[in-house]
Each structure stands twice: as C-alpha cells, then as structure tokens.
C-alpha cells in the first residue's frame, strides 16, 4: 500500500511541528503539499522535504490530486472554509482545535459531514492520546474510583504571545480541559462560570490572568480549572479526579528526581506543550494515518466533539464577561 499523501495547511509552530513529525516519525504517510498564507514560509518548508510542493491557495491544496488527506494547522478563523472544502472533495482531515471559531459554523460542519454518511473529520484534542490521560481514563472506566464526582485541574503556561487576550485563555487554553472533561466523564457540560482573581502584576496590561473556570456536567459533577498563562516558570498541566472510593492524579512531572550538592533535590518540568504532549501528538497522528489508510478515517475526537467544545468556550467567554453562571446550549445530536 502506498504512503498517504498529506497536505499540511498552516506552516506556523504546530504546522511545522506536524510536518517534521510526519516526515521523521510517522509510518505510512508523507507530506506532499504545504500551504501557508505567507507563501515564502510554505516554500521554504516544502523545499526541506523530498517530493513536497508549496501550493499558494489552501482550497487548491485540498483539491490537489496528489493529496489524499489534509492536516489543518491554519489559524482558527480559516478552518470553516477549509473544512467545507475537505468535505466537498471527500478528503479525510485532522483539524487542530478549534473546529471553527463560532458555534453556528461548527454545527454547520457537523451537519454537512453527517449528510455525507461517513465521518471524515477528526479534531486535534491531543490529550486523549497522552499515556497519562489514557491511564486515568482506564482507571475511571475500570471502576477504580467508584463514581467520579469532582475534577480539579491546573493549566499553567510560562508565557503566551503578545496577541493573547483574556478570551483566548478560554478558547485556546481552557478548551483542552473542556475536552478532557467530556472525555473522562463521558458526558456533556451543562454550565460554566469564570472567576477573575487579582491579575498577575507581571501579565501584560489588560490580560485577565489567572482565571478560575467552574464547570458542571449534565449529571451534576463539578470541575474546576486554574488557568494561569503567564507564570514565567514552565508548562504545568495537572488533573486530579476525586471519586467515591479515592482519587487519582496525573501531570506531576515526576520523571527523574536528582539530588546534588549542597543538599538540593529536584527534577525538570516540560518547558512547553510541544515537549509535554510530544508523545500524544505522535500517537494521535499515527493513529489518524492508520485510520485513513484503512478507510475508517477517524480514530479520535469527532466533529461533534469539536462543536461541543466550541459551544462550551463560547458560553465561557460570556461567563468571563458577565461573571454569571452561563448555561451551555447544545443542538440535538442526531444518530
Ligand atoms: C495552546 O494553543 C495550546 O493548545 C496548548 O496546549 C495550551 O496549553 C496553551 O495554553 C494554548 O495557548
């Protein structure tokens, strides 16, 4: 069977990372086309990969006869049109979050995909492929905690780009805990509230950081998340689930613990999400490639998962502005 020919749309940090991953570590696939709105950037990247071309128009890249599947790592606002093109040309697509940037277009994508009768879209919530999250899920599903009741999460970034505003803490960062909640608890989120503590004096002016999100699931489970994206320290993502018969925690970064003179001990913390979740991205992309090659097309979070996360984050941004508990309204799920 010949290699899956992938078009990578978006040559920014994540796009370039995926190109390197597919080229060096993923079996059964190669990058045949690269696209970016900065044409030169795409050309430079394409030149570094044997048999790869830069295509200036993203929709032409999707339609290209030398493209079997698409990896979308373009900015969120571009996803809508690019996903519709993938559906039109029946090309399986792995779409980095968000599915789209607003609920109406996300639902439209879910419906258009459903009309085709077979799934084509997988959404890049990579934490589902991380060994620690997988172990936590297996522990919960195996009944190790009894009924899971409460989840406490910490999501800290050392820094964010200057363009990062308060709503992006919800849409870009919290979105991962939104998906983790739905993944671990297997149910939808019913409401969200966001508390605004005194801002970090070292955060850029106007950025509400930290934020504390409080979510309630449909069955009444409680989830709280400390989001703090300007810690200046390292990348810290911890998740603790408390159940009727105990609790379980992941993300302690307890790798190698060293001692050294004069009487100190310690280890290291991943500097950023690419290092912390490198294994998860590799597993995610390999499993997606295998699923597409076998004709299943999706082996992970679906378009519905992307839509549900967008709906929760949209309610989250309203909660951030108002301070209220905002209910999450989801469309009826057909099929
Ligand atoms: C970024 O976009 C990510 O997806 C990271 O996983 C997250 O930790 C970070 O806060 C986001 O900005």
Estimate the mean pLDDT confidence.
97
In the CATH hierarchy, the third-tier topology of the largest domain is known as: Dihydrodipicolinate Reductase, domain 2
What's the total number of strands?
15
SS-based structural class? alpha/beta
Spatial extent as radius of gyration: 20 Å
Please give the CATH architecture of the largest domain.
2-Layer Sandwich
Helix content: 25-40%
| Residues in β-strands, percent | 15-25%
What summary fits the major beta sheet?
7 strands, mixed
Gross morphology = globular
Walk across the major sheet and give the strand order: 12-11-7-10-9-8-15
What is the name of the CATH superfamily of the largest domain? Dihydrodipicolinate Reductase, domain 2
Tally of individual domains: 2
Question: What low-confidence regions span 5 or more consecutive residues with pLDDT below 50?
Answer: none
* Element string (H = helix, E = strand): EHEHEHEHEHEHEHEEEEEEEHHHE
Bound molecules: (2R,3S,4s,5R,6S)-2,3,4,5,6-pentahydroxycyclohexanone
Number of helices: 10
């Amino acid at each position: 069977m010949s290699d899956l020919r992938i078009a990578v749309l978006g040559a920014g940090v994540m796009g370039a990372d995926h190109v390197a991953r597919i080229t060096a570590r993923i079996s059964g696939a190669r990058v045949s086309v690269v696209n970016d709105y900065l044409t030169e950037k795409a050309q430079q990247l394409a030149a570094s990969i044997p048999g790869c071309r830069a295509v200036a128009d993203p929709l032409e890249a999707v339609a290209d006869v030398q493209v079997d599947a698409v990896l979308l790592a373009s900015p969120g606002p571009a996803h809508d049109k690019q996903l519709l093109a993938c559906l039109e040309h029946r090309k399986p697509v792995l779409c980095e979050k968000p599915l789209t940037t607003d609920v109406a277009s996300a639902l439209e994508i879910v419906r258009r995909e459903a009309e085709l009768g077979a799934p084509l879209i997988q959404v890049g919530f990579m934490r589902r492929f991380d060994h620690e999250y997988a172990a936590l899920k297996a522990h919960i599903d195996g009944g190790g905690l009894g009924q899971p009741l409460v989840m406490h999460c910490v999501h800290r970034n050392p820094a964010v780009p200057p363009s990062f505003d308060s709503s992006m803490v919800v849409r870009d960062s919290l979105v991962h805990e939104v998906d983790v909640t739905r993944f671990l608890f297997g149910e939808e989120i019913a409401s969200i509230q966001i508390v605004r503590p005194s801002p970090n004096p070292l955060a850029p002016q106007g950025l509400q950081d930290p934020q504390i999100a409080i979510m309630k699931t449909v069955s009444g489970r409680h989830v709280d998340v400390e989001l703090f994206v300007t810690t200046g320290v390292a990348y810290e993502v911890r998740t603790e689930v408390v159940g009727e018969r105990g609790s379980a925690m992941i993300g302690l970064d307890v790798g190698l613990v060293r001692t050294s003179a004069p009487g100190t001990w310690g280890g290291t913390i991943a500097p950023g999400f690419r290092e912390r979740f490198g294994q998860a991205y590799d597993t995610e992309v390999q499993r997606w490639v295998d699923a597409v090659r076998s004709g299943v097309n999706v082996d992970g979070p679906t378009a519905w998962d992307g839509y549900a996360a967008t709906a929760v984050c949209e309610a989250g941004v309203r909660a951030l502005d108002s301070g209220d508990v905002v209910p999450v309204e989801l469309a009826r799920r057909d099929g």
